[in-house]
């Protein structure tokens, strides 16, 4: 038998008084005064952080963050005065207001502050001195549907906003959120649903529900729901008690206290979120709106999450996406309220699936046939969804109001006139996103100064041209 002894055990086995020398490879040392034949060079590969940063900046949209007011010493950089426009109110949702720009005022329970917005919308709000949007025909139609949903179960009002990229689906969804919040609804708004399935939060398997819980995401969701709907949740109580992980909540506990406890402890956040949704399904006092942007991301057959065998996890095996799928399919329902989702057609990681396109009756980017691959489970979750198409173009009246708003906010470097408006409206084909980003904001690139014989160098140097 051969025994493998460690160096420490060998040293202990030597007779007393024997010196155990350290393991030093003296043959590899360079003699004094000589240069080592082995030279280690710093190899700069293409995967260095600097190159990665430069590569990511190639087509990245700027953050447009405001500078510190103490640094704005130049008069042209002084903070602008806020735009003057009417506030977004349910009373203004009339046909006479179509084409008017209204402002989203900051309130203590501001959904934009706590829930957030899609990235492009966030950047627009950073550029403008006042957060605002334009009232369109589809805005009035959506408000009428929400008025009807205030007295009907949510399984009867399940809409999906569809349309080409940049037509204004996310803005319409935000208008629906603001409208319901002003009508004192309970609002659950998820502006970036792909964060639930792109493996950016922790997940753990739960034997009780046989799904993968997302404790950190559930904790954040509870905190946001509580901040926006604290007043309404204070008036609702639990019908049944809850005991989980050495925490107990008796019947009669307010939903605000329940959500507050879950928002502070990720160990119980998933169970608390499930209990909160269950209690909201039992009460018929206050309508509930569940609004989800990037709605198609939870209908893909695979997510970016992986199980212990490194196989892709299905969206209906994740706890929070499964809740949304159950409400979207009508398997769960609020006694009063509505479910509204918005598709994002420009996300190649999570495209619009065949199951959604078949149910909504919308054409896809690629042709599909009855033999195209489909999931029976996702078809079941998509059954009953109704299509609410968003107009692909601004009407001239709506575009003129948006153009005037940006003009009054000093976003145009070119002279503002009818020719410029018609040029940008034509170039963008009326598409709302293209009209703002490629049209109006495209003028920030500026044109070269006209130099003639009377132009002097001081004028060019001081920028007086």
Automatic annotation (TrEMBL):
UniProt-listed Pfam families: DAP3 (PF10236)
Main localization of the protein described in the UniProt heading: mitochondrion
Record bears the keyword Transport: no
Domain of life: Eukaryota
Compartments, record wording: Mitochondrion
Keyword Transit peptide: yes
Coiled-coil region: none
UniProt cross-references to InterPro entries, sorted A to Z: P-loop_NTPase, Ribosomal_mS29
Keywords, ordered alphabetically: Mitochondrion, Ribonucleoprotein, Ribosomal protein, Transit peptide
PANTHER family attached to this UniProt entry: MITOCHONDRIAL 28S RIBOSOMAL PROTEIN S29 (PTHR12810), SMALL RIBOSOMAL SUBUNIT PROTEIN MS29 (PTHR12810:SF0)
Family (UniProt): Belongs to the mitochondrion-specific ribosomal protein mS29 family.
Protein name: Small ribosomal subunit protein mS29
């Amino acid at each position: 038998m051969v025994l493998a002894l460690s160096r420490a055990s060998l040293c202990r086995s030597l007779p007393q008084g024997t010196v155990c020398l350290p393991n030093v490879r003296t043959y590899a040392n360079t003699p004094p005064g000589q240069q080592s034949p082995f030279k280690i060079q710093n190899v700069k590969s293409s995967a260095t952080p600097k190159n990665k940063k430069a590569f990511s900046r190639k087509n990245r949209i700027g953050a447009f963050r405001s500078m510190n007011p103490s640094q704005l010493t130049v008069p042209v950089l002084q903070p602008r005065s806020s735009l003057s426009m009417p506030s977004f109110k349910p009373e203004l949702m009339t046909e006479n207001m179509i084409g008017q720009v209204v402002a989203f005022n900051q309130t203590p329970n501001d959904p934009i502050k706590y829930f957030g917005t899609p990235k492009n919308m966030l950047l627009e709000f950073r550029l403008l001195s006042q957060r605002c949007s334009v009232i369109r025909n589809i805005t009035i139609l959506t408000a009428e549907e929400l008025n009807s949903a205030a007295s009907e179960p949510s399984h009867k009002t399940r809409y999906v906003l569809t349309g080409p990229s940049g037509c204004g689906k996310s803005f319409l969804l935000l208008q629906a959120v603001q409208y319901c919040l002003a009508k004192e609804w309970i609002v659950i708004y998820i502006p970036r649903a792909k964060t639930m399935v792109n493996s950016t939060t922790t997940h753990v398997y739960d034997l009780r529900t046989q799904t993968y819980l997302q404790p950190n995401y559930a904790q954040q969701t509870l905190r946001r729901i509580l901040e926006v709907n604290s007043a309404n949740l204070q008036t609702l109580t639990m019908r049944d008690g809850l005991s989980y992980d050495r925490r107990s909540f008796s019947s009669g506990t307010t939903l605000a206290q329940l959500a507050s406890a879950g928002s502070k402890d990720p160990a119980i956040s998933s169970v608390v979120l499930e209990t909160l949704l269950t209690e909201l399904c039992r009460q018929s006092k206050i309508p509930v709106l569940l609004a989800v942007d990037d709605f198609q991301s939870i209908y893909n057959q695979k997510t970016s999450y992986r199980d212990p065998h490194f196989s892709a996890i299905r969206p209906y095996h994740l706890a929070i996406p499964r809740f949304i799928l159950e409400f979207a399919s009508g398997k769960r329902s609020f006694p009063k309220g509505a479910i509204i989702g918005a598709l994002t057609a420009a996300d190649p990681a999570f495209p619009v699936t065949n199951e959604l396109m078949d149910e909504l009756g919308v054409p896809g980017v690629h042709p599909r046939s009855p033999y195209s691959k489909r999931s029976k489970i996702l078809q079941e979750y998509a059954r009953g969804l109704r299509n609410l198409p968003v107009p692909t173009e601004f009407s001239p009246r709506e575009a003129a109001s948006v153009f005037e708003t940006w003009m009054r906010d000093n976003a145009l470097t070119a002279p503002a006139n009818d020719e410029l408006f018609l040029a940008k409206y034509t170039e963008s084909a009326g598409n709302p996103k293209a009209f703002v980003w490629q049209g109006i904001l495209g003028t920030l690139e500026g044109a070269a100064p006209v130099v003639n014989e009377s132009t002097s160098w001081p004028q060019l140097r001081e920028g007086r041209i």
